[in-house]
Amino acid sequence: MNLFKRLEWNLSQSLKHTVIGFHKKSGKVMLSDTTLRDGEQMPGATLEPDEKVRIAQLLEKTGVHSLDAGFPASSQADIDAIRMMVGVIKKPVLTALCRTVKGDVDAAEVALEGQPLAKRGVSLFCGTSPLHREHKLNKSKTEILDLIGETVSYASKKFLIVAFSPEDASRTEKDFLCECYTEAIKAGATTIGFPDTVGFLTPPQAVDFIKEIQSNVPNLHKALLAVHFHNDLGLAVANSLACIAEGANVVQCTVNGIGERAGNAALEEVAVALKMHEKEFGRKVKIDLAQLGPLSQTVSELTGIPISRLKPIGGQQAFTPDPTGFEIAAYDASIVGL
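Structure tokens predicted for 2-isopropylmalate synthase:
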């Protein structure tokens, strides 16, 4: 690392926790989009690198805080797509998904090379539930904690922005879950994520987890708290909003709610709900609603995944009045650019 880069790194390190504190105190909700990675896992939704860049540019225009740009260790195509975004996507933070494997972190570093330090990061994940520990990883709780600490520490020496999420968090024992988060933050994580990987929580259950994390992760003030919900029960948006009301800082979602199985929390639904009920939530979200319609339609066209007629926000019937003309949408279609 040359002298200039060393000075930049040291200055950024000293400002890191100041920035986190600012975000937490501001009360703003940050939307993190994972259409290009988690959304693409939907069967048939494969995107070419240039198509990913096009969607990333629209997401940047919409105002998302960060983009889950891909999983570099999984394929050369993901590396190529991320490389095409470097220097082109300037406002959102570009992040790359990694297992708790040092080689994955190295692959992310190569893919994101050239992106400014404050605009690149990695998102590490590790299975923590009994099912994952026993049948997927064959590791004890102690071994899982050691793995988290070692890999997050390794990543934090290469990236200023390091997120950690326990895979299958919603089926992990709450006390062990909090130990995992505490260890990750201690090792340098700047964001901790709570993923409902199998999408089976209800809003009250999701809130209980958030309260548990807030009460039993002593170093939580050093990291942002993100949530990531799958839609297997049709509750991903409701769960996201419930956690926002409880103090979550970041919501991870996808355009049109695409994703594996029943999909993810839909970015456009979370954004519009927050804007319409800003007083209720007491939180602001920096999203240009007028960009949501074009974004939704473009993602549908490029992925080949049609938008249901009944889909909130982007569906054809969303703004169609009933025959009497009295029952109409709560807001005009032009608000979201339709």
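The first strand starts at residue 30 and ends at 33.
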